[in-house]
Design brief:
This is FUSC family protein. It is found in: Membrane. Keywords: Membrane, Transmembrane, Transmembrane helix. Pfam families: FUSC_2 (PF13515). It contains 15 helices and no strands. By secondary structure, it is an all-alpha fold.
């Protein structure tokens, strides 16, 4: 059997693009599904919200109040393993906490080493690829590598002393430790729903490496394009690209892109309304806690619902870490998200395999027949 001609492959990709852009595929992005376990989602939301509250409030009352954004990042370890068996949950939370600490530490080290903005973004992209591999290989499940990339983005800013690097790592680790303790104390509240497999964890090792490499290249492209455009937060484009490419199939990637764009636009408007009132620390923290809990309740129904809450929550957490950067963040988030989504779709299509495109064609035909 002869290898497919290059022109035939291009035509196949063009056909795949047409299928992705059909109204039916776009409507699928807004379908409401039944979450695997609303109880487990509520427990994970409660655990994460409580961990963020304790870790951030304690830091705010300490002499290191300027570090209060980093324990919030470490506390996000409680998001992982909500469907893990009882004996596996704590190891998932521990590994997730270690990856959050490593994400902050690696980018902080690159910064103090004198990396240029472009080099920092390349380091972030390479880290995104590595984090994707670890997340899939260790079967950490949702919400996936995008949380670790988000944590790494918080460390992209300049570092002026080794003490700052150490403080960032220690406070992120402290937040992760709080999350582990809270999950350990309350894990009995979860139901025994089976663990959802992480996207890509069932694939051969070579496929996992290919997926990690694709995400690294895509994240670098999106972030460097944002940097070239002069946008203030180019690292956020890497988050969008990573999130989109976590989809296991081409139509899921398109759904992610559409859902992330729509949810971010609405969520950014909500964040703008909150930040326009220039809230003080405690109302800001309360808003983060409420949004975190609601996110976990609704994201299982549709990713759009989750992003409507995740976007303002992420921007408010960024505001906690850097209050002076609040102005203009909502619009920057929208631009970076749209860019990341577009670059992610392009990479997913260009680097798709014949099996990927065949799966899309079969899904398209089955949906038409149904």
């Amino acid at each position: 059997m002869h290898a497919p001609h290059a022109l035939d492959l291009v035509r196949t990709r063009r056909a795949s693009l047409r299928r992705l852009l059909t109204p039916a595929r776009l409507r699928e992005s807004f379908a409401v599904a039944r979450p695997p376990s609303l109880r487990n989602a509520a427990v994970a939301g409660m655990q994460t919200s409580l961990a963020v509250l304790i870790a951030v409030a304690a830091t705010h009352q300490s002499p290191w109040a300027h570090m209060e954004g980093f324990p919030a990042l470490g506390a996000l370890a409680a998001l992982f393993g909500r469907f893990a068996p009882a004996g596996r949950r704590m190891s998932v939370v521990l590994l997730s906490g270690l990856l959050l600490v490593a994400s902050v530490g690696v980018l902080s080290l690159a910064s103090i080493a004198g990396a240029t903005p472009a080099t920092m973004l390349i380091c972030l992209a390479l880290l995104a690829g590595a984090l994707t591999w670890f997340t899939n290989h260790w079967g950490l499940g949702g919400p996936g590598a995008v949380i670790f990339v988000f944590a790494a983005c918080a460390a992209v800013g300049p570092v002026d002393a080794w003490r700052t690097v150490v403080e960032r790592v220690l406070f992120t680790a402290a937040g992760a430790a709080v999350a582990w303790c809270i999950c350990r104390a309350t894990d009995r509240l979860r139901s025994d729903a089976p663990m959802a497999a992480a996207p890509g964890s069932e694939r051969p090792l070579l496929h996992q490496w290919n997926a990690a490499g694709r995400i690294a290249l895509c994240a670098a492209s999106a972030a460097l394009l944002a940097l070239a455009a002069g946008w203030p937060h180019p690292a956020w484009a890497a988050i969008g690209a990573t999130a989109v490419l976590q989809g296991s199939h081409l139509h899921i990637t398109m759904h992610r892109a559409v859902q992330r764009t729509v949810g971010t636009v609405i969520g950014a408007a909500l964040a703008w309304g909150i930040l326009a009132n220039q809230p003080t620390f405690w109302p800001l923290l309360a808003a983060v806690i409420v949004l975190q809990f609601i996110t976990e309740l609704v994201i299982g129904f549709n990713y759009v619902f989750g992003l409507i809450c995740v976007t303002p929550m992420a921007l408010l957490m960024t505001s906690l870490a850097a209050p002076s950067a609040s102005a203009g963040m909502p619009m920057a988030r929208v631009l970076d998200t749209v860019l990341g989504a577009l670059v992610g779709i392009a990479f997913a299509l260009v680097f798709s395999t014949l099996d990927d495109r065949a799966h899309l064609a079969a899904h398209h035909e089955n949906a038409r027949a149904g």
